[in-house]
Amino acid sequence: MYLIGNISIYLGIVISLYGIIANLTGIKKKSSKWFESARGAVLSLAFVASIASFLLLYLLGTSQFQYKYVASYTNESLPMAYKLTAFWAGNAGSLLLWAFLLSIYAAMVVFSKEKKNPMMPYVSTILLVNILFFFTVMALNVNPFEMTDKIPADGKGLNPMLQNPGMILHPVTLYMGYVGLAVPFAFGIAALILKRMDSEWIKLTRRWTLLAWLFLTLGNVIGGWWAYLELGWGGYWAWDPVENASFLPWLTVSAFLHSVMIQERKNMLKTWNVSLIILSYILTLFGTFLVRSGVLTSVHAFGDSNLGTYFLIFMAFMMLFSLYIVMTRYGLIKKDSSSIEAYFSKESSFLLNNLIFVAAAFAVFWGTMYPLISETFTGTKVNVGAPYFNKVMAPILLVLIVLMGICPLIAWQKAVFDKFMKNMLWPLAMGVVTAILLFAFGVRGIYAMIGLSATSFMFGTHLLEFARGISARRKATKENILKAAFKLTVKNQRRYGGYIVHIGIALIAVGVISSHSYSTEVLKTVDAGNSIKIGEYNLKFNELTEHMKNGNGVVAADVDVTYKGKAIGKIKPEKIFYETWPEPSTEVAIKTNWSQDLYVVLSSWENKDKVTFMVKVNPFVSWIWLGGIIMVIGTAIALVGGRPASIRYQTNKIAGR
User: Fold this and answer.
1) pLDDT tens-digit readout, 637-653
2) Can you tell me the distance from the alpha carbon of 424 to that of 139, in angstroms, rounded to the nearest whole number?
3) Smaller CB count within 10 Å for the chain: N or C?
4) pLDDT tens digits, one per residue of 133-157
5) d(CA 178, CA 376)
6) E strand spans, 376-460
7) What's residue 654's pLDDT?
8) Beta strand pairing status for 596-607 and 537-549?
9) Cα(536)–Cα(564) distance, rounded to whole angstroms?
């Protein structure tokens, strides 16, 4: 198995190099035989990467501790699910996962129905360069099949923070998002090399880009859910450097997905689109660099890594290569682009949307890197924490929410202001009524009230768009409301799938604003039999118990909970002690209803009768997870859409547009 694993790594290097050479030779000689050979190389890479991946999974699942990676991240008592997910717990495994996913994606691309497209050899070459990089790094630095000097009786085990269902999904979804962005990047560069300035590359990669965005969304939401359950600090997003690194490409891809619609429909924003997809791809490398370089402290980072130099060099190479291609084609891009005819139009609103997304990305990037920049130039490391990000990002995200409410109401090409104001009347009224109701029910905090009212306005706009479309369709077809709503969405998945995504964002915004502005917290030490009161909850501490679970020691507090004087059951916040890990992990106890979470952490104890709890009431946090689910549903609907513009135009006419 040692030979098979190592041969597969080195074969990955050899086959990648051959595929690159075959493509370049085919381009030079205009030979289809060389292109066919390069496609065979890509398929072989997918096979080799699959062998290596399944072999590593077998070694992890069967506790082959003679392999350093297996001994470092598993042990005998670890449940099988976490033995297998240790695949991506360390550098070697995560890089193999990346190479595997990229090889599979590359094979799907080069054997698609567009395999004869003139861009394909260039696309294949760019993807092969990426694959070559990952196999080379594994061979030189972090081989997942490296043997130990002495076989240990048991492994070190998996970091307790990773022993959570969220961490089964969170890294994989992020990797699939990161890897997926290599495909539209490769098509964009290929189109530039061939001087094809039309929107063909965008149409060919629309689903790839949407899929990558979907996985980035899932990765970020699941990561927040994991942090909320596992880290025990009562929040879900701490503006940690690695969290920010995964958020950055999400912002730029979001901008890209909006602006490509303008290029497809109006032949505009070509420079924006090329720049955004290059930036998004580079940011995936930047995120990987941050995780593995150790230059910034993060709970998510791989602390034992020296891979930062490799990623920095590769990132710089790809950035310079991309800039060279763009600069040498810039004149053609500008010459073949249309200009915006009116400032008050949907096109202008999309451009403003891009500017805000890029501003948000720059603000996050600057705050993330400032400690490193200050240390480099002044010798003093200045920490930038959540207060900076909250203060800077809150107004930016508020403007985005308002723009999401305004943009669907603006007409293409040149909007009529009076008609726009008429369209905006009901959503605006909904926002004003929300503000009045919040004040009437005793809700205070001017900034939070503005944010919630703006979110209500945005939500109202999308409800209005659905209502108008359904009404127009019912008039034309005499269908009932449910059938009309279903048919309307099916006939224009891209548009209404996008609206559903925006509705999911509205729910997330309500959860984020409410939990940040109106959460309450109590840190209190109580004796057995005594209670803690917070809001309308009363928590009675009964006793502290100890027991064993999966070979680990568990200390649990037994607590009775009442809400508005009515018993709603028991909770048991825990600390779990792992034999192979120095620090215990925190298992939070959460009681959830539609409007708030009761969040209880066992902080410390003096003896079994005297315990300290951290208790929080977090309003509307469950709406964040629900909003994430709705965003995924909306994206899935948009993924299966995408018909020619002429058909979309007819659908829009039926919908009353």
Assistant:
1) 998 865 543 334 343 44
2) 59
3) N
4) 999 999 998 999 999 989 988 888 8
5) 29
6) none
7) 39
8) unpaired
9) 5
Joined tokens for residue 547:
């027991």
Q: Using CA atoms, how far apart are residues 237 and 220, in angstroms rounded to an integer?
A: 9
CA 352 → CA 14, 272, 356, 396, 486, distances in Å? Answer: 47, 12, 6, 12, 32
Determine the pLDDT at residue 336. Answer: 60
Q: Are 457 and 427 in contact (CB under 8 A)?
A: yes
Query: Which residues are CB-neighbours of 24 under 8 A, at least 6 positions away?
Result: 125
**43-78 pLDDT, tens digit each:** 999 999 999 999 999 999 999 999 999 999 998 888
User: How does pLDDT run across 444-470, given as a tens digit for each residue?
Assistant: 889 999 999 999 999 999 999 999 999
* Calpha distance 134→12 (Å, rounded): 9
* Alpha-carbon span 308 to 301, nearest angstrom: 12
* pTM greater than 0.85: yes
3-state secondary structure of 198: coil
If you compute the radius of gyration of the chain from its CA atoms, what whole number of angstroms results?
A: 27
Extract the tokens encoding 90: 């360390």
| Residue 101: Cβ within 10 Å count | 20
The helix-helix angle for 241-266 and 165-180 (nearest 10°) equals 40
Does residue 475 come out as left (phi exceeding 0), alpha (psi in the -120 to 50 range) or beta?
Answer: alpha
- What is the SS3 assignment for 16? helix
The neighbouring-strand residues paired with 614 are 523, 601
- For 59, residues 6+ apart whose C-beta sits below 8 A from its C-beta are 1, 67, 69, 70
Determine the average pLDDT of the residues in 165-183.
Answer: 92
Element (H, E) at 548: strand 537-549
Residue 233 neighbours by CB under 8 Å, 6+ apart: none
